[in-house]
Amino acid sequence: MSAQFETDFWKDEKRRKIWDDIVPGEPRKTIPYLLTLEAIHKYCESVGDRHPLYYDEAYAKASPYGGLIAPPSIHILLMFSCTPIDDWMRSPGTINAGQSWSYNIPARPGDTITLQARALDKFMKKDRLFVVHDNVFFNQHGQVICSGRGQTIRPM
Fold it and tell me: How is the chain split into domains, by residue range?
């Protein structure tokens, strides 16, 4: 379930779904992901967030969370971790045209994360391809970690 992260985003570009493959309302294929403490720390280091809730067990246990957690923005890592290489959201050249997220409970080390995701709509505007999509991340207990809706501009 846990995987090494590919850093060459162009590597599988030819295998990715394209505009014509995006069907509004159709669930995207997703894969479970085991969120490790190591992955949380790598993510935190990459974004420069050294909050003790993510690193210091004693501090985190004394907090209202009762233990180590992942930062709310971990959904960025999870979006790639929970989707296969052919997912259209992974296409190089994709532009984030806006998003809104709601955070319910924190993800924790050892959680198995699943994603329910789909395109809600797709349209052209000023010769650009837009997709409106939603994403909901769950832990192994079926609890919603976070959910979001966004728009992306797809590469031509």
Answer: 28-154
| Percentage above 90 pLDDT, the chain | 76
* For the chain, counts of helices (H) and of strands (E): 3, 5
Superfamily of domain 28-154: Hotdog Thioesterase (3.10.129.10)
pTM for the full predicted model? 0.89
The one-letter amino acid at 101: W
Pick from 92, 96, 46, 52: nearest CA to 73: 46
Looking at residue 70, its pLDDT comes to 98
Structure tokens at 9: 């985003």
Report the range of poorest mean pLDDT among 36-50, 81-95, 103-117.
81-95
- The HSE-up count of residue 15 (CA atoms within 13 Å, CB side) is 9
Answer whether 39's CB lies under 8 Å from 82's CB.
no
Q: Which of 78, 104, 59 has the alpha carbon at shortest distance from 5? A: 78
- The structure tokens listed for 77 are 């890592």
* Structure tokens given for 125: 């505007």
